Amino acid sequence: MNKQIYDFDFPELSARVNSWGVPKYRAQQVWDGLYKNLWLAPEEFTNLSKELRGKMGELVEFNVLKPVDYRESKDGETLKTLFELHDGQHIETVLMKYDTEGRQPRRTVCISTQVGCGMGCTFCATGQMGFKRQLSSGEIVAQVIYFARKLQDAGETLTNVVVMGMGEPLHNYAATMEAIDRLNNPDGFAFGARRFTISTVGLVPLIKRFADEKRQVNLAISLHAAEDELRSSMLPINEKYPISNLLEVCRYYVEQTHRRITFEWALIEGVNDTPEQAHILARRVKGLLCHVNAIPLNPTQGFNGKGTGSERAKIFKETLEQAGVTCTIRAHRGIDIQAGCGQLASREK
Ligand code: SAH
Ligand code: SF4
Q: Within the chain, which residues score under 50 in pLDDT?
């Protein structure tokens, strides 16, 4: 198979385009077409000769993502697309629109980094699929460009990227960071590092590496429980990296970057949503620059647990805040279109 277009960084793209015996500035035109104009197919590169467009289409693969299913939530605020990859595997990407009066509209795309996931979290539809394969950096980049272009065509602008779709991004570290760097390139798509958020299940050595690289990308940790026994029963990786190690590396991250860390908490009724759990959590993160994002569990077929209702969620939040930890309760998006992590792609199987 030809190399896929979004897998090239600029030096590689230049070398490739120059190898076709065209003037040097052509490579810049191709790059600008891809990352400034968001052109998706060779035909759109009208500043190139017909011959060069043909050659480009023949020698490089532009069809990285083939949309095969598309769902929009009833309120129109969540759009989910199921993509088929070159080898017939499927991933999903979700666009979320947030319009609050008096604020800039937010357009956030939630991207995948793997087909399936090997971390086996019991409540997660992607985890229930198991690990299939890593995505290339280009397959990650392509998801962002696809939606950026869709928004551009509608006169809107992408504002945020969250790496919270299928897969564990730190288990595909190199490709994920290459993708972010390619999208961040100031002479290209120029998407600011602070507009990305990576969510991880808590791979301690890689969080350490991420902290040492002092990236400006936001970091979210899927904590979900503040005691090892409970956390291990939900997130098997906790056996390897227990909460004390995880919180230690979180403290290191904050020291290195001076950035606030987010803890994610899927509220499961009667399991991790009690005031007692809130107290334990508050005690363990004391003094750490952090914020808790709690989301009622999105039901999945393979897990027998119920999302917490709004009354209990409110008590959880208040208990945390009284103990000095800020907390936001988020509504989960797009339940009517299976927009939870991995839910559409796993149904496809
Ligand atoms: N693998 C990474 C990122 C993808 S999952 C991680 O685990 O952080 C993105 C977020 O969705 C994680 O916080 C994950 O725990 C959460 N999640 C997965 N399944 C969920 C469900 N059924 N309901 C609510 N949140 C869920
Ligand atoms: Fe993988 Fe994240 Fe799902 Fe766990 S929650 S199985 S790490 S995608």
A: 348-349
Give the pLDDT confidence of 274-309 residue by residue, as tens digits.
999 999 999 999 999 999 999 999 988 889 999 999
Q: Is the CB of 117 under 6 A from ligand 2?
A: yes
For residue 124, the CA-to-ligand 1 centroid distance in Å is 6
Q: Which atom of ligand 1 is nearest to the CA of 117?
A: 1
Pairing status of strand 290-296 against strand 218-222: unpaired
Q: Token digits for 193? A: 């590092």
Measured from the CB, is residue 295 less than 6 Å from ligand 1? Answer: yes
The DSSP secondary structure of 123-157, one letter per residue, reads T-HHHHH-EEEEPPHHHHHHHHHHHHHHHHHTT--
- Minimum-distance ligand to the CA of 301? 1
Whichever domain contains 32, its CATH number is 1.10.150.530
Ligand nearest to the CA of 221: 1
Same domain, 51 and 75: no
pTM assigned to the model:
0.96
Q: Which domain holds residue 274?
A: 66-337
